[in-house]
Amino acid sequence: MKWFWRIFFTIALLAGWGILGYFFMDFTLGSPERTEPVAVEIPKNTSLKQVGKILEEKQIIRRSYCFGLYVFLKQKTNLQAGNYLIEPDEDIDQILEKFSKGEENVVTVTIPEGWDAIKIANRLEKEKEDFDKEKFLALLNSKKPKYNFEVNIPQNPDRPFKLEGYLFPSTYDFPKTASEEEIINIMLGQFAQRVEKLKIRDRLNQNEPEKGMTLDKLVTIASLVEREGKAKQEYPRITGVIYNRLHSTDNQKLRIDATFLYVTQLKEEWKNIPFHQLKYKKHPYNTYQVKGLPPGPIANPGEEALRAALEPERHSYQYYVTKGDGSGEHYFAETYEQHNQYIKMSNANQAQREQKN
């Protein structure tokens, strides 16, 4: 009878280990609680081990220890590269089914910092199927507010797009089925996150960066900085020049080229006008002609530009001109005479670069 008990205990031990292994695998491949969809990219030539690591990093599964074994047991080893959106209620089996069929359900779109609404619409039209560019642009003026900051954006007829400046630049994984309004709200949601991250509301209430500053004015200044600056380390200094000009006892004209170049995106007939002539064209966004800030943002700024608008460098500079040496940096001047000297240096640097090329 001893042999019977030996076999019995061996089988019981193996069964116990099997049950324990099952529960361990089930636990590790289970998902922590999720309330939002998660975008997942599976690059080409990604191994099963790497796919498991990706899912673990995205917190879709708890641990990837047993992922390869589970995929092998389920005979789903033919996982296909692509961009996927994993819904909160999808379990590991549904995810493997999606990966094995290659059912991509998101489109990845990169929106660079400093792009305006029209450029963004053009990019989305190119990248996303069934995207209605004109509807998208119209919704920037007419959609129902989802976030509190939308309610406080001024209603100004001179603004071509009310939500210009608030479409936060980033790389997005938009659901393929997302409507134009849903896309806008996703981008506005990213902007709202930066408002919280930078504590912009609290700082404005504390009269930072100055008394009377509003979120819309701050975004407008950030958009000017984003379009004027190339070297991010100069953003606070450029912002300081803008504030100095706004408070100048001279004429308070910003004289920023990017503002009337923005108009060329809106007025087709202006695109062929020589650069030096554009500054004399009258338009609410031409800061060579109007005092103070333009009616609204001229682009959609990123986090660094927003931070610079909130934290300007304090100095006495009134002018800046690109160095023309390919660095993207600027010469800064306190007087117009010094500024003219720097313009000559900039032109010389540019000429020297062209000779080398």
Automatic annotation (TrEMBL):
Enzyme Commission numbers on file: 4.2.2.29
One Pfam family linked to the record: YceG
Main location: membrane
Residues annotated as site: Important for catalytic activity: E228
GO molecular function: lytic endotransglycosylase activity
Family according to the record: Belongs to the transglycosylase MltG family.
Matches recorded under Gene3D superfamilies: Classic Zinc Finger, Endolytic murein transglycosylase
Membrane topology note: Single-pass membrane protein
Function recorded in the entry: Functions as a peptidoglycan terminase that cleaves nascent peptidoglycan strands endolytically to terminate their elongation.
PANTHER family attached to this UniProt entry: ENDOLYTIC MUREIN TRANSGLYCOSYLASE
Domain of life: Bacteria
Transmembrane intervals: 7-25
Listed GO biological process terms: cell wall organization; peptidoglycan biosynthetic process
Catalytic activity: a peptidoglycan chain = a peptidoglycan chain with N-acetyl-1,6-anhydromuramyl-[peptide] at the reducing end + a peptidoglycan chain with N-acetylglucosamine at the non-reducing end
Organism annotation: Thermoactinomyces intermedius
UniProt name for this protein: Endolytic murein transglycosylase
Compartments, record wording: Cell membrane
GO terms for cellular component: plasma membrane
Keywords associated with the record: Cell membrane, Cell wall biogenesis/degradation, Lyase, Membrane, Transmembrane, Transmembrane helix
